[in-house]
Amino acid sequence: LVFSWIFNEYPTFVKQDTRRFISQETGNLYIAKVEPSDVGNYTCVVTNTVTKTRVQGPPTPLVLRSDGVMGEYEPKIEVQFPEVVHVAKGSTVKLECFALGNPVPSINWRKVDGVPFPRKVDMRKASGVLEIPYFQQEDAGTYECVAENSRGMNTVKGKLSFY
């Protein structure tokens, strides 16, 4: 299954960037810092990649709160990967991490033992999803997602074990 979101009218889909994230685990849409241009209706679309059929949910309106200006605040991690993930040899593992915050937090990944990521891990694409293809014994270990902005930093860790 693939999750996507329509903004107001089809065919305008939400584009993921540093501010917007769609979890492919839950289907939830997250907006790190809501802007006036985000106001509108959001409709979840679930696509079965095998049969190419899609279903969509009801539109969900997003409105700006009128009770004041949102101040700056440190990152609050809203999407995190499990504490322990068992990964089969040769499979691809995807870890999700996304934080709300103002200013919009940056998301960075690191292996806790300090060993740099192998070349097969594309760090340019990483941000909210760390993808490790063709998982091997040496990829096992504790991984950390670091969400940071000028107001502070938060981290989550999880262990990938090899089987």
From TrEMBL:
Entry-linked PROSITE patterns: IG_LIKE (PS50835)
Ranges where the Ig-like domain occurs: 1-56, 75-161
Keyword Lipoprotein (UniProt): yes
Biological processes, Gene Ontology terms: axon guidance; brain development
One GO CC term, this protein: plasma membrane
Pfam families from the UniProt entry: I-set, Ig_3
Keyword entries, A-Z: Cell adhesion, Cell membrane, Disulfide bond, Glycoprotein, Immunoglobulin domain, Lipoprotein, Membrane, Repeat, Signal
Cell compartments where the protein resides: Cell membrane
InterPro entries membership: Ig-like_dom, Ig-like_dom_sf, Ig-like_fold, Ig_I-set, Ig_sub, Ig_sub2
Primary localisation category: membrane
Molecular function via GO: cell-cell adhesion mediator activity
Family: Belongs to the immunoglobulin superfamily. Contactin family.
Subunit structure: Interacts with PTPRG.
Protein name as annotated: Ig-like domain-containing protein
Lineage: Eukaryota, Metazoa, Chordata, Craniata, Vertebrata
